[in-house]
Amino acid sequence: MDLRQLEFLVTVADEANFTRAAAKLRVAQPGVSARIRQLEQELGHELLDRSGRTVRLTEMGATVLPYARAALAAVAGARLAVDEVTGLLRGGLRVGMVAPHSSTEFDLAGLLASFHRAHPAVRITLSEGTADHLVESLQTGQLDVALIGVGAKSPVGVAWHVLVDEPLVAVVSSDDPLAAGAAIPFADLRARTLLTFSRGTGLRSVLEAASARAATPLTIAFEASEPRVLVQLVARGLGVGILPESAAREHPRLRAIPIVRPRLRGRLALAWRSEAPSSPAVRAFVQLARHGVRPVTNSVTEKRSRRQGSS
């Protein structure tokens, strides 16, 4: 049994597919299959069920997998300890981001470029997903850091640093009756057809939490992960969009109305595992985000909404 066999097992289990695992490992698929077969022969049991369209762990495979992860983590920890002593900053940084992130106020490419200039030996990879998927990937160690939309509560084992904190606004076409108003109470959204982000996003969780607290059921008829799609639907008069203020400002023909009683906020944050040792590269990236990027707080609509009464 060797570490490469364990790495192949963990990767196939994570990807549930030999082809994707081989691509991720940058080896030929037959090589992956052969090494796992060798491991199964050494242990005397099949670890993977290959009978379906997706590869699944057998009962024995599920038993072995935590030990395989622990062995790989122990080796990674030993390398980190050496790096700490020698002061090296190398290896990889696996970054996830919501697809796409709804705020236009944060320059992720700029942050990544700054980190690369400071630490060119660190290999950076970037992937997309929903906030829920990215959090799960952080918790299981498949990602090192992730840019996510966050709700009111921090998931177990995840810490974050807020990069953008801005109001959520109701967006309507210019001929909508709401366009003449200075603000809209949250309870009044109950009577309207809403367009907003998909389930699993931070903004959607904020909206659902507010609906539950206020006992105000909402009618969400259209949902999408792309702000531009929602804006186009709003422009065609299909409903009221619930968007971050920065996304609404990109479209001057539409009217962004503050939501009050309560005011809702969308937050974009850099998240990382809080209960596991982090590499020097992760710590350096988090430090750059904490100190090199100033949190953005938008308040254009808030200046108007403060004149409308309490939150």
TrEMBL record:
PANTHER family assigned to the protein according to its UniProt record, in alphabetical order: HTH-TYPE TRANSCRIPTIONAL REGULATOR YBHD
InterPro entries attached to this UniProt entry: HTH-type_LysR_regulators, LysR_HTH_N, LysR_subst-bd, WH-like_DNA-bd_sf, WH_DNA-bd_sf
Species in which this protein is naturally found: Pendulispora brunnea
Taxonomy, superkingdom: Bacteria
Protein name as annotated: LysR substrate-binding domain-containing protein
Keyword set, alphabetical order: DNA-binding, Transcription, Transcription regulation
Statement: the UniProt record of this protein carries the keyword Coiled coil: no
The UniProt record lists the keyword Protein biosynthesis: no
Database matches in PROSITE patterns: HTH_LYSR
Pfam families in alphabetical order: HTH_1, LysR_substrate
Gene3D superfamilies to which the protein is assigned, alphabetical: 3.40.190.290, Winged helix-like DNA-binding domain superfamily/Winged helix DNA-binding domain
Residue ranges occupied by any HTH lysR-type domain in the UniProt entry: 1-58
Family: Belongs to the LysR transcriptional regulatory family.
